[in-house]
Structures are given as C-alpha cells and as structure tokens.
Write a structure and sequence with these properties.
binds flavin-adenine dinucleotide, alpha/beta, about 25% strand, globular, seven-stranded mixed beta sheet, about 550 residues, single chain
Length: about 550
Amino acid sequence: MSAKPPPFVLKTSAAFEQVFPTLTEAQVARIAAVGRRRPVKAGEVLLRAGEHGQRFFVVTRGQIEVVPKGATFVISYRPGQFSGESSTLSGRPVLANVEAVENGEVIELDREQLLALVQTDAEIGEIVLRAYILRRVELIANGFGDAVVVGSDHNPGTLRVREFLTRNGHPHTYVDVERDPGTQEMLDQFHIGVGDVPVLICRGTLVLRNPSNAEIAACLGFNEGVDTERIRDLVVVGAGPAGLAAAVYGASEGLDALVVESNVPGGQAGSSSKIENYLGFPTGVSGQELTTRAYTQAQKFGADLMVARGATRLACARKPYAIEIEDGVRISARAIIIATGAEYRRLPLANLSAFEGNGVYYAATYIESQLCREDEVVVVGGGNSAGQAAVFLAGTARKVHMLVRGEGLAETMSRYLIRRIEQNPQIDLRVRSEIVALEGASGLERVRWRDAGTGLEETHPIRHVFVMTGAVPSTAWLKGCVALDEGGFIKTGPDLTPEDLAEAHWLGTRPPFLLETSLPGVFAVGDVRGGSIKRVASAVGEGSIAVAFVHRTLHE
Ligand SMILES: Cc1cc2nc3c(=O)[nH]c(=O)nc-3n(C[C@H](O)[C@H](O)[C@H](O)COP(=O)(O)OP(=O)(O)OC[C@H]3O[C@@H](n4cnc5c(N)ncnc54)[C@H](O)[C@@H]3O)c2cc1C
C-alpha cells in the first residue's frame, strides 16, 4: 500500500484560517437552509477530477479530502470547513477528486445555489471568495495543476502559453528543457522536436504541441458550461477593464450577461506591472491583480465569460443582434457593449514584453516623468503624441533622444510642436532611426538604435523608452455596423452627427444615449471609443455607466 501524501503546506504569506476557514454554527445553519444535508460513506468520491458538475460541500460530520492525481499533498476538510476553489464558482472542470475519508455528513450545494448564496449573504460571500482566491494562489505557488508546460525560457511560444495560463489564473507546472536534460530525452522518445516546443500536457492525458490559446482553452475546458444558445440580455465584447466593469455592473444588476474575450481577461491593463494612478491603491496595484479580482467579481455576480474566442462579426441587420465568434458560433443579444480596446503599436522586438512597464512605456504622464528624472530617455514616434511627450519629458529628463523613422517631422506633427522641439536643447532629434535592441537583466539597461541613412548602430545606457507610435482600435470586425471616426474608433452619443445617424438609418425617436453607437442598444466603452481618455479608471467608469443605459434600452 502506498504511503499517504503529507498534508498541504501554505507557500504564501496568507493566514491559514483565511485559506481554510472554519464557519460558525450560525453560518453553517444559513448554508444548510439553501443546500441539502446528506450522509457520506468512507471512500465515497464526491467530485471527480475533470467532471463538469461543480458542487460545494460543507462538512458537518467526519472528514473529506481533496486528493490530486499524482500529487504530493492532500487537503483535508473537517466539520465547519468547506471545499472548492475558483473553478467551483466559474464552473470550469473540477481540478482534483474530492473524497470522504470516513462516514459522516455534508451540506451539498450546486453551483447555482452557491452563486446565489455568495451574492445574498455578504458575510459568507466574503469568507468563501477570499478563501477561493487564496486557494487558487496557493495551488499556483505549489506548482499544482492539471496542466504541465514543457518549454524553454528562451522560447516566445513558451512565454505565450505560460502567460495565457497565468492570466487565466490556471495553476500549472513548468518544466524547462534547458535546465532538465532528462526531459529532453523524454521528448526525443515521443519524437517531439524543437519546433514542437512548448508542449502542453493537459489533464494528464492529452499532449498538445505548440498549442494555440484556443486549443489550450478547449483542452482545459475554460469555456465549457457556457451556454451560447440562449438570447442574452447583454453581451460584452472584450474583457479589459471596461468590459469587466460592464460585466460586474450588468450581472450585479440582474442582467443575463456574457463576456466574449479573444485572448485573456485583463486587456492592456493586465500587462501593466504596476498601475499607480487607479483610485484606492496608493502604493499601486499590478494590472494582473486588479483584473483578476474584477474577473472573480464578475463571476460572483453570475456573469459568464468565454476566453480565447474573439468576436469576428456583428450581425446588426435586425434585433436581437448577434455576435459571431470563431468556429461560426452565434450569440444573440438584446444589448451589446463593445469594449475591444485598442492595440498600442509595439516595437517589433522579441524581448519587448520583458520591459513593458519596466523601462518601456506607452504613456508619458507625471508618474513616468518622475521615474526618469535626470536620466536620458528615448521617445519613439513622429506624431503629435510623441512630440508632446518629448517636450514634456524634456522638463525633467537629462536628455530626450527622439527617434523618428521618417525623414523629418513636417509631415506628421503640428508646426508649433516642431518649433518647440527644434528650440529645446534637451531634445536630440534623430530622423531615419529605429530601435534594434533592448537589453537588461531585471529591467531595461541599454538601448541600441540604427540610423537607416548611414547604417550605423549605437548603444546607449538608457533605462526609459517611450513608445508613442499610436494605437489601432480593434474595430475591424464591426464591418460597417457602427459609425467610426477617421482613426477607426467608434463614435458615440453626442459625437454622432445628424449625417452619421442618417447614414446609419438611426430609427430611434430619441438621440443616442451617452456611449451609445449609431446602432440602438449597442454601446462602446473604453479605449475603443473615439475621444476616450486612455486610462484604466475611465475605462472602468465608462463600462459601468453604459450598463445604466442598457437598462433603458431594454425597457424601450
Ligand atoms: C503597458 C501598459 C501600461 C499601462 N499603464 C497604465 C496605468 O498605469 N494607468 C492607466 O490608467 N492606464 C494604463 N494603461 C492604459 C490602460 O491599460 C488602458 O487605457 C485600458 O486597459 C483600456 O481598457 P479597455 O478595457 O478599454 O481596453 P483593453 O484593456 O485594451 O481591453 C480590450 C480587450 O478586448 C479584447 N478584444 C479585442 N478584440 C476583440 C474581439 N474581436 N473579440 C473579443 N475580444 C476582443 C482584447 O483581447 C482585450 O482583452 C497602460 C497600457 C499599457 C499597454
């Protein structure tokens, strides 16, 4: 008989009582009022790894255990303690078997009952949500999960797969082939070559070679259980801060809301290492942390979320509208909030993401200017935003190297800015120049650029690069359904001219609401909206405001 694995040990600084709380008798009684008491027998499997019907158990007598397949630990729950972690709320497949150790009794709730409980009982809701978030963090810290990534730190595909799993909050084990020669031998036996890396071993059975994000989502069941058949009150497209805010407010106000996200929850903000200007976080908050909390909050209120499934078309000819997503699936909606954001034009450098927020910035505000006080900086771009950034940063930086790909600024920048740049001795304008390499160990340390005219390259010890080459709105999929401005951003509310409305055949007897597009009942929020302020707080604000107008259109 094999020895029983040792008990689970916390790897983070979380307090044990918060990760595995014991409920009071009064709290257990409130759960019993909505659930079902039932006896369990020693050895009975209450939940099986991979199964979809998530359930929640509170132990009232005896003991139950979480027994991960091949794991090096077990988690025990005694009377007053409850089972589950984030996937219990999200409805994703069960991560590990849950078994009764001895004859006893549990209170059982299905997922719908659990969602109703955490929404209505604030005290229990807080205890369960906090425990679930902390348990998920602990599983990740313990390297436990039903996914194993075999790859290399030097392989961009490995970074993509790990980022996709991490930003979806999915625990996984990582094996680096370069640090573990035995792994390479194993891969050789399966004829898995260099081009197949990374390999994802999914749920201990399926082996995927260099999988796409959609394949990973399918294999791990991220979107299972999401009903795409019924007509939704609200479909939100995009799960950045704007879309997540719309989902939280929509679902919490009783709307049947579904969010469709082409990549991972969090959007641009999710990639920010520290957001310092978001209200209520005086010491800053990582984009990942902020958006993970928002994602859990949306799920708590019952919003559904599909990841790695982008909207490819808006069927706008008649109501209810429909969002077509990859694989030809159509989701009908009474109202739609478009929150697809904008993609900042990025530098074509393989290691760029390692420095984003840590030396490479897409905004030049007071905060960034303080970070590079008395330092040399690079501003990339020849448009007005780059010009404004260069002039602004020249006020605090020792020197601003302005790199422009074209022959000069005249074509792309306002005359007054060109004059200011020319007259400012702190600004060194380099035309026909582009960055060819970024270097540094823990942050950006050196920048190399090339003069395309002379072919010469030079390396400078510079720790701050501002990429101000503009943003492209993610609106190509809308194909003529809503009015766009000259930059391709969506026009809304008072920005829509009578001509826009006439062209769009606006049928309403009222003018469009604030944030409403030229299509009644379809709203645009956040970075994708023309004239929006490209900030997390404004995206969140717009997402929540739009929901108020969704209610009004649903009652029309
Ligand atoms: C590196 C970096 C650091 C930043 N730091 C700060 C900061 O410190 N403070 C601050 O206030 N702002 C900061 N910003 C700006 C801020 O992140 C954005 O203004 C904010 O994220 C906009 O939110 P959004 O929801 O409108 O769009 P996004 O965050 O861009 O989210 C849009 C989402 O829609 C998805 N999507 C796109 N097309 C489709 C489709 N067809 N179907 C389904 N989904 C789709 C995308 O994958 C994405 O997840 C930073 C931006 C970057 C890039």
